Structure formats: C-alpha cells, structure tokens
Amino acid sequence: MIILGIDPAIRCTGYGVIDIRTPDEMYILDCGVISNKPGVPHSECLRRLSGGIRELIAAFNPDCASIEDAFFGKNIKTSMILSMARGAIIAALAEAGVPVYPYAPRKAKRSTVGTGTASKTQVGAMMAVRFGISVAEIPDDATDALALALCHGQVAITAGMECLLPPPV
C-alpha cells in the first residue's frame, strides 16, 4: 500500500510517501517539502500546493493519503490560512480519486514515537530508525508527514483493524 502523508502549511507543506507491505516491511519512497516564499500571494501558494500534490500523485500513484486534521488555534487568521491550504490539497487528491484520512498531530506522533508531544527532531529520529535512513535525509517539515503516513499504514494493513480507521474526508 502506497500512502502519501501530508503536513499542510501555506508556506512549507511537508510530504512523505511510504510503501508499507507488512507491519515489518515498509520503505520511504520520497519525502520533502512544497515551499512557497514569503510575500507570494496566498492564491499563488494554493495553486502551487495543489500542483505539487498532483505531481506527487502522478509520480507515486498513492492508494490513499493521510493529512493532519484541522485544529482550532488562538489565531483565527492562521487557522483560516491553514484551512485554505488543506482545502487545496484535499481538492487535488479528490480530483484523482485518492481517499484522504485525517489524523490529529498528537495521534500520529503517539502512534509512531510513543508520545503525542514529540518534537520534530524526535519524530525525525524515529522515522530514520524505522525506515533505515539517515535523519539528515528527512527535511524537518517532512517528519510529521511521514508520521501521518505511518500512523495510517499501521492500522490500514493490519487485518481486523479497519474499524479503527477514521472516515475519509
């Protein structure tokens, strides 16, 4: 099963693509970021985000995607901008027929690291160990995306655990 994990942001969206075959056999196919420079209008950022997701879909043909769930922050404007980024990403996935599963950041971190309050550094270190690569090969903004993909994959490939999957968005 090929899973595209996405940690959305308007300026630097992290992604991770994993191939998970069994709970013990999994590989990172790619990880990185879709970046937008400061000062670029939000409309252009959203266009670039959806275009980047379309490129990832074309390159890896994922079976599904996992994305950081929406959350409510103290700054409403920031929450709205993040929601626009999520919307552009989800729309690109929906156009391609890729089901999208949302996970809270704390849940993804807890399922992959053991604590929901893990830092990006801790998540990156665990992903490096889990996938047998150097932590230097994982951009900071891609760490949570890999954790989201792995979180979904651990449940999705385990027989009898389908009932624990969140409903797709």
Structure characterization notes:
This protein is α/β, with parallel strands linked by helices and 169 residues long. 46% of the residues lie in helices and 22% in strands. It has five helices and five strands, in the order E-E-E-H-E-H-E-H-H-H. A five-stranded mixed beta sheet has the order 3-2-1-4-5. The longest helix has 20 residues.
Keywords:
alpha/beta; 169 residues; Nucleotidyltransferase, domain 5
How many beta-strand segments?
A: 5
Q: How many domain units?
A: 1
- Per CATH, the class reads Alpha Beta
Radius of gyration: 15 Å
Assign an overall shape: globular
CATH topology: Nucleotidyltransferase, domain 5
Q: What is the percentage of strand-forming residues?
A: 15-25%
CATH architecture annotation: 2-Layer Sandwich
The profile of the biggest β sheet is: 5 strands, mixed
What's the arrangement of strands in the largest beta sheet?
3-2-1-4-5
Supply the CATH superfamily name: Ribonuclease H-like superfamily/Ribonuclease H
Distance between the termini: 19 Å
The helical percent reads 40-55%
Order of helices and strands: EEEHEHEHHH
Count of alpha/pi helices? 5
Name the poorly predicted regions: none
Derived from helix and strand composition plus strand pairing, the structural class reads alpha/beta
